[in-house]
Amino acid sequence: MSEKFDVIVVGAGPAGTSCAYTCAKNGLKVLQIERGEYPGSKNVMGGVLYRQQMEEIIPEFWKEAPLERPVVEQRFWMMDKESVVTFGYKGLEWGVEPYNNFTVLRAPFDQWFAKKGIEQGVLLITETVVLECIVENGKVIGVRTDRPDGEVYADVVVLADGVNSLLGKQLGYHNEFRPDEVALTVMEVINLPKEKINDRFNLEDNQGCTIELFGDSTKGNLGTAFIYTNKESINIGVGTTLSSMIKAKLKPYDLLDYLKTHSMIKPFLEGGESAEYLAHLIPEGGFHSVPKVAGNGVLLVGDAAQLVNAIHREGSNMAMASGKMAAETIVEAKSRNDFSESSLNLYREKLYDSFIIKDLEKYKDAAHTFENHPQYFKDYVPMMNRAASKFFTVDGTPKREKQKQIMRSITGERGTLKVLQDMYRAWKAVK
Amino acid sequence: MSTKTIEEKQYLIRFKADKKSHLTVLDHDVCMTQCPDKICTIFCPAEVYKWEGLRMQVGYEGCHECGSCRIGCPYQNIKWEYPKGGHGIVFRLA
C-alpha cells in the first residue's frame, strides 16, 4: 500500500464520496478509505436527502439511486401530552421533477453513491480504520491505517471521518466537543405495509411525508423528534443535546419509547414491526463550532467540519456541497502543484461564501439561546396547545372574550414583560 | 411487534464484535469515588455501561460507536477508539 495518490479521502459518507467522486471525475488518482464493512454500515441519518446538492454531483440521480419517497408534505407538530398544534405544507410540485427532497435509507444509498465513485475511478477500500495522519514538517503527507504496512501517501488528505472526527482532533483543528455541541439521537426503522403508510399519512405510492415534532416529544428538552415515511417503513427518532440528556437524566431509548407510545403518535405505528435501532451524534454546535477546515495538505468536510444546520435539519446536503468544494479546490491546487495551507484555503473561501456558512452564521446563537432558555420548549408549546384548545372549543363565550382570556393566561403565567423578552430573544436568535 | 426494551432494540442489530474492547474506562476508582450519578449508564443509547458495585462493566460488543460516552463522561475517563476495521456495529438500513 505504499503507493502515492493525488488524494486520500477518509470516510465514505455523503461528504467523502462527493469529494472522491468529483476528484476522480477530474482525473485525479483517489483512494477512499472506509472503516465499515461497506459504505453506510456506520452511517446514520433521520432520512431526508435534498435534491439540489446531490444533483450538482450526479444529475438526475433520482432515476437510478435507491431512494424511498419524494417528500410532498412537511408537517410541524407542537405537541403536548394529549394534544398537538400542527402546521405544515403539502405541495404536489415537490412530487414531480426536479423534486425538493427524498426520504432515504442510508445503508443502501451510501453503497450506491460509493459505487458511482468507483465507476469514476475511485479506489475504495473498506474495513480499514485510519489511525492517524502522517505529518512531516507541518504538512499532512498521508495516513496510517490499521492494516499491516498500512501507510499510504497523497498530496492531499480529506477528512470526511464524521462527527467524531478523531483525526481532526489529533491535528489539533478542534478540541473535544462539549456536551451542548452535539445532539444524541436515536431512531427505529419500523416496517409497515405500503397501503397502511399511504392511508395513515394521506399519501399516494410515490409521495412521502415528514413530521418534525417539538415539545412533549422530547419531554420539553432542547431537541426534536421526527417521523419520516419510507416506501414500506417509517423512521421514527428523537434527539436532544447530550447536555440536556445528561441534565434531565434521560435514557434515550426510554424517550424513544415514550414517543412511540404517545397518544398522538401510536396510531401511526400500530401493527408495525421494528427492523433496526440506531444511535448517532449530530454536530449541532453550528457556526461557533466549525473548526479549522484547511491546513497544509489537509481539508475537513461534512460532519467532520461540523457542517449541520440543526434548525432546518440540513446536513447531508452541506456534506455533499462541502465535499464538492473540497474536490474543486484540490483540482485547482493540483494545477498549481501547490498543496500548502494558503493554496488549500480556497476551500475555506468557497465554504464561507456559500449557503453553508451563511446559514450557520444566521443561526449562530440559536442553539445557545434555546439551551439557556428552556421555556420555549417546556412552557410555550403547552401554552400554545391550551390556547388553541380554548379558542376552538365552542362553549358560548364570545370570541373577543376568549382572545382576552388566552392573552391573560399567557401573560399571567409568565408576566407580560417576560413574554415580550422571550419573543424578542427568539426572534433575534433566528432572524 | 414494536420494541419495548433496550434489549429488544439491540437484538435487531447486526454486530461483528472484535475480541478486544475499543472502549476503556481509564480509572474505575474515578467512577466509584467521584461520580455518584454514573451518568454514562443512563445516557448511553445502547446501555453499554453497567455499574457493578465496584467497577464499570463495559459491554462494548453492543456499542453504536456514537461517541456520547467520550464527550459526556464528566471526568474524561473513557478512552474511545474505533473498533478494528470491519468490526463493530453494521447498520443494514438507515
TrEMBL record, chain A:
Keyword Flavoprotein part of the UniProt annotation: yes
InterPro entries: FAD/NAD-bd_sf, FixC-like, FixC-like_C
Required co-factors: FAD
Domain FixC-like C-terminal: 367-430
Cytoplasm found in the keyword field: no
Keywords carried by this UniProt record: FAD, Flavoprotein, Oxidoreductase
GO molecular function: oxidoreductase activity
Pfam families assigned: ETF-QO_FixC_C, FAD_oxidored
PANTHER family reported in the protein's UniProt record: ELECTRON TRANSFER FLAVOPROTEIN-QUINONE OXIDOREDUCTASE YDIS-RELATED
Family: Belongs to the ETF-QO/FixC family.
Name of the protein this chain belongs to: Nitrogen fixation protein FixC
Organism, scientific name: Cytobacillus solani
Source taxonomy: Bacteria, Bacillati, Bacillota, Bacilli, Bacillales
TrEMBL record, chain B:
SUPFAM superfamilies: 4Fe-4S ferredoxins
InterPro entries from the UniProt entry: 4Fe4S_Fe-S-bd, 4Fe4S_Fe_S_CS, ETF-QO/FixX_C, Fd_FixX
MF (Gene Ontology): iron ion binding; iron-sulfur cluster binding
Residue ranges of every copy of the 4Fe-4S ferredoxin-type domain listed in the record: 54-83
PROSITE patterns given in the database record: 4FE4S_FER_1, 4FE4S_FER_2
Pfam families with a match to the protein in the record: Fer4_ETF_QO (PF05187)
Record keywords, A-Z: Electron transport, Iron, Iron-sulfur, Metal-binding, Nitrogen fixation, Transport
Biological role stated in the UniProt entry: Could be a 3Fe-4S cluster-containing protein.
Family named by the database record: To ferredoxins from P.putida and C.tartarivorum, ferredoxin I from A.vinelandii, ferredoxin II from D.desulfuricans.
PANTHER family cross-referenced by the UniProt entry: FERREDOXIN-LIKE, FERREDOXIN-LIKE PROTEIN YDIT
The protein's name: Ferredoxin-like protein
Species of the source: Cytobacillus solani
